[in-house]
């Protein structure tokens, strides 16, 4: 009988011992509850994880390899946004579906952030695509690719950091330190771009994709032409535009045609074949493939590769 009592007693003692421990664990769990962040495009996902690290749980809404401009959220995506603490999107030109979505969901505990706040959006001013003028958000056709200007990327990092601090004030020092470190890396990259692109034999980027690199070209004083007139890859270039591009390639002695990520470089192949140019990729960083994600690409690594390809293609010193 004595022997049988012992395990029961042990269990009882353990149970009593365990109760306060359970309570303590719950407190820890509440205290360490990660801030849930959902983002649309890859740069926002990467900025958030660089700043928030282990204090946040960040989710990229775009499935791997999906073309970002054509993306529309499915019911499961809407639920992920609804369940998040912070939802980050680029701007109303990149994700025109956000306004409609917000009308249909409960946003009382959700902070929705347009990361283009404080950034001047550009608009194409002619049909050659090589002259830019600054316009406000009110323009109906503004260029959504703000992240491809590294000074804008730094502003977006600040916006994200301040939102994380607002949701999680205890992490203030942590977020500010990470944001500062990350902005330093962006600043160094920006300097590298400036130095490299200041001494190039050729100063014309011919891009056989949609008009994505207007911000980058403007920042470094380079002429940029895209085969697709629009800001998204949904319209095929016209035969007239292809003739124009071919003429530009010959006139400016362009040696390389750039193609975009996630789509077959059909148009780039046509132009390259017609003109005898080589092919190089310019990654717009909108989204990444599963392989790229698994290999650990970052916004900075994609932009470093872009600079290598620009250096080679524009024959920079
Ligand atoms: Zn784009």
Could you explain how this protein is built, in words?
The chain is of the alpha/beta class and 317 residues long. The protein folds into two domains: 33-114 and 147-192, Rossmann fold (3-Layer(aba) Sandwich); 197-313, Nitrogenase molybdenum iron protein domain (Rossmann fold), CATH 3.40.50. Helices cover 47% and strands 13% of the residues. The protein contains eleven helices and ten strands. It has helices at residues 2-31, 42-52, 75-83, 98-104, 150-167, 172-197, 214-219, 239-251, 266-275, 290-294, 299-313; strands at 35-39, 56-60, 86-89, 111-114, 122-124, 132-134, 204-207, 223-226, 256-260, 278-282. Strands 2-1-3-4 form a four-stranded parallel sheet, with helices on both faces. A two-stranded antiparallel sheet has the order 5-6. Helix 2 crosses helix 5 and helix 2 crosses helix 6 (172-197). The chain binds zinc ion. Zinc ion is lined by residues 69, 145, 210, 212, 232, 284, 286.
Mean pLDDT: 87
Provide the β-strand percentage band.
5-15%
Major β-sheet, in short?
4 strands, parallel
The first-level CATH class name of the largest domain: Alpha Beta
Per the CATH scheme, the topology name of the largest domain is: Rossmann fold
Rg value: 25 Å
Low-confidence region ranges = 4-28, 126-139
Secondary structural class: alpha/beta
Q: State the fourth-level CATH superfamily of the largest domain.
A: Nitrogenase molybdenum iron protein domain
Total number of domains:
2
Bound molecules: zinc ion
Which percent bin holds the helix content?
40-55%
Task: Please state the overall shape, judged from the principal axes of the Cα atoms.
Answer: globular
Strand runs, count: 10
CATH architecture name of the largest domain: 3-Layer(aba) Sandwich
Distance separating the two termini: 90 Å
